[in-house]
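Lab notebook, bench 4. Still working through the backlog of constructs that have no structural model yet. Next entry is a single chain of 237 residues. Request: give me the structure tokens for it.
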Amino acid sequence: MPLALTRRRSQRYGDLSGVSIDAEVSCNGGRFRENLLFTHRGLSGPAILQASSYWKGGDLLHVDLLPGFDASAWLASERTRTAGVASLLAQRLPHRFAQQRSLQDGRGQQAAGPIRSLGEKRLSEIGAALNDWSVLPSGTLGYNKAEVTLGGVDTRAISSKTMEAERVPGLYFIGEVVDVTGHLGGHQLSVGVVIGLCRRSVRLEADLGACSAAADGSSMPISARPQEAETAFEAAG
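Model written out:
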């Protein structure tokens, strides 16, 4: 889900709302290269939405603004130029982002001034910040903005064949209520469809068994009778 920034950072990056950057965002082992989008409240876009599944309160996000490109080496090769830092950054980053001079070097100082006025160490720090911009979100924007959520009924507590709860006969769980989390791009929907088809197949088998028993003149087996919990669950779904 989208991640919020502190009030101070939101004010700083607020005028970048709508700016999108091809970036690689990583957090706690998850790494995604997709678009990062600035909003008036924080950060969003596919890269952030994916990484947010790995983010926990207080964790840093690591953003590579020039993935696959050595920013320090590039700046060092341009150190004799009279162009300003913002103008040079605008060659590889969105103009508004570069001109806003929001990027800071490793010491938290603005990356401003002409390139040739900066020492080798300073250019290296600026390059490092481009390839590893550390961001500390203040929280999320809540479930109303979420694309994928974590949590749900533990898959170990239900049958993978019938979706019936192991400890509560007659109680079934299907769809996103089950604790199966996929990446963006239809994975979550696919899981929901597969689980639904699995449960429907089992129900059809039970119905066919009941019809066969009725045709034979025998009583309907207990296993084929809709349980109250199942009926209530399907009515709610």
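Notes after review: The longest helix spans residues 187-215. Helices lie at 7-13, 46-51, 71-77, 85-89, 95-99, 120-131, 187-215, 228-236. Flag for follow-up if needed.
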